[in-house]
């Protein structure tokens, strides 16, 4: 039986995980898209019914 070997791939040495890196890239884009989105009229969506 062979001894268990750890995978060759290691964590990045800079301490930034892939998840953190992805969030840092996507968060500003999502916020910018929300800020630049055209505003809907007050009665167009979610208005009072009745």
Structure description:
This protein has 50 residues and is mainly alpha-helical. It is built from one helix and no strands. The model has no long low-confidence stretch (mean pLDDT 77).
Radius of gyration (Å): 23 Å
**How much of the residues is beta strand, in percent?**
under 5%
The poorly predicted ranges are: none
The rough form would be described as elongated
Helix fraction, binned, reads 25-40%
Largest sheet: none
Contiguous helical run count: 1
Q: Mean pLDDT, as a whole number? A: 77
Layout of helices and strands:
Layout: H1 18-36
Descriptive keywords:
mainly alpha; 0% strand
Task: Sum this structure up briefly.
With 50 residues, the chain is an all-alpha fold.
């Amino acid at each position: 039986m062979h001894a268990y070997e750890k995978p060759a791939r290691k964590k990045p040495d800079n301490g930034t995980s892939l998840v953190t890196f992805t969030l840092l890239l996507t968060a500003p884009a999502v916020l910018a898209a929300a800020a630049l989105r055209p505003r809907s009229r007050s009665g167009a969506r979610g208005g009072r019914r009745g």
